[in-house]
Amino acid sequence: MKKCRLAGILLWIMLFVAGCGCSGGDIVSEKETKRKESTGDSWTVMIYMLESGIEEKYNRVSEVLGSLSYDLPQNINVVVEVGGCENGWSTDGIKADKLQDYAVQKNGIRLISERDLENMGKSDTYSSFISRTVKKYPADRYISVIWGDGGGIINGAGRDVLYNNDPLTPDEIATALKKAGTKLDIIGFDSGFMSDMETASLIAPYADYMVASQDFMPFNGWDYRNLFKTISETPSVTPEAVGQVICDGVGEKASAGQEMFLSMALIDLSEMAFVNREFDATADSMVSMCEDIEKLRVMTALIDSAPCFGANSVYEGYSNLVDLDAFVNAVITASQSRDSDITEAIERAVIYKVNGEFYESSCGLSVYYPKNRLPQEINRYKKICKSEKYKEYLDKSTASTSITQRTADYRETEAWKKYSGISDAYMNAEPDLRGGYMLSASNDNTFINIGVTLYKYSEEDGLYMRLHTDNDVYYSNITNTYENTLKNSQLKMNGIAVESYPVTSWGDMSIYSIPVIYDERTTNLRILCEKDENKYTYKVLGIFDGTSDRKYKVPSSGDTITPIYSIYGGTQNQYIEGKELNLVFGGLNIKEKDLDDGEYLISYTTCDLYGKKTESKTTNVKAIKGKMQISK
What we know:
Blueprint: H1 2-19, E1 43-50, H2 54-58, H3 60-67, E2 76-83, E3 98-105, E4 108-116, H4 123-136, E5 141-147, H5 152-155, E6 157-160, E7 166-168, H6 170-180, E8 184-190, H7 197-203, E9 207-213, H8 224-233, H9 239-253, E10 263-268, H10 272-289, H11 293-304, E11 308-309, E12 312-313, E13 317-318, E14 321-323, H12 324-335, H13 342-349, E15 350-355, E16 366-368, H14 375-384, H15 388-397, H16 414-420, E17 427-431, E18 437-441, E19 447-458, E20 463-470, E21 474-476, E22 481-484, E23 489-493, E24 496-497, E25 501-506, E26 509-518, E27 521-532, E28 535-544, E29 560-566, E30 575-577, E31 581-582, E32 590-594, E33 598-608, E34 613-615, E35 619-624, E36 627-630
Parallel strand pairs: 1-2, 1-5, 5-8, 8-9
Antiparallel strand pairs: 2-3, 3-4, 6-7, 9-10, 10-15, 11-14, 12-13, 14-16, 17-18, 18-22, 19-20, 19-33, 21-22, 23-24, 23-32, 25-26, 26-27, 26-29, 27-28, 29-30, 29-31, 33-34, 33-35, 35-36
């Protein structure tokens, strides 16, 4: 793939030089150029660009606009609407106080209309752009692209920074397309995290195919010039083939380091009715498992640990996007039966994928699953979810009085009755005779996650600060307790112990998140862990600002970065700062090393099937020469 990518980049450079006589401030052209004769079937491509702060951060919108120049034949029209820029564009001629539509031509982009600012995160604005463009450039085939950052079914695609960062959500997109009244051949997202079952289902009545990414959209995004070349030279090409060209183009343009996280998919939206029907049957078995506390516990534990996309920690937040195939397999494993043809439905809907090494086994579609169990999110999701059985499952499995418009009550389920009937629940953690750490609990049949959390004493602050939770815990049928062999190592950043959280795992590769202060803001440093037999290696991916970004920023020489730590007994938003690192040659390195000598606390932490988190009483330990010794 690397050879293909290099060739693709070289070709792109040659095409760019040959086809574009503009650069820098010469992107916008005032003169309409003469176009080549028609080559056959007509195509109209509509690119809706929400600046989303990406222009201010990287000048990326201007770079994309500068790359669009192409000598289009008369049967191919490409129109771009740009807006939502707070502090001005780096491109001369583009106005920050107007919404502007530009036509792509061989010497740049040409302004064809402008109007007063409107919120690009509203369906009416998007619908107006579609209707206006279709009226001006009617065609045999239509492609609509939404460009910006992405956040999935809840957070949508793009956000207008001029209007309180309002995103264009999937239900708003569907409303806009319905109002515009034009069936699209392809709707595409040059934005991350939008290849989910719900988005595809909402849009299905208004488009034939969807092209999107389950995870990040790589920073370089789509290869638009190759798209233009394809439909210009072979205008009779099928939309399905064009979708494959788009997916391949993203793979070819992905920069080094981002190619392993590719997760592009082409979705046949005509198959979404089949997907929804079979998913509803799957959800029906989930509803049934709400009556069996053990099956519900197993299923919840499996889904909670399934591979996911986007943010997934207390510092990052939660995107709540789980791979649909992994989700379904968790349900099948727990129910010990296959009550639907959902696997076949997924395979029929996802007709083409371009996956990197990390996401090699991802299926192409995600599904919303509320790991953080936020009532406001669940209430919003229930309004747009098409599966009545899945909504019933959420009602029956989410123990919150803030969930509104319930069709079922979790308190009436057999699982809840058994759960709430456990009286005098206790957790007792203590050292065992072999120097390990064990937990006995009366309600352990409700646990979906259990681990040992390690806190280090900070003499400077007089507080204990969290480092990590070790989930390498096993159950002993002999002692009827959970047991953990204390881990005498710790992740360190340039020799300094850091707090870390697991984000997701695929096979022998995992992503961890380290909360830090970087560039004077609280953010996260992501690292990749690869396991080879019993050896673990760690690689710095970079700063992760959440799903609103399109790439990792790798701290380098001259930067400063400060690890931060949660406080034992503190609130979720409380943290203390560690030692500031001034990076020199070599930048950051992450290694697993011996514990620093000093005072520590350990405790068992659990999460049960209804999301209740409990922590046992702590036990004092010391590290002497890197080895833990439990205080007697």
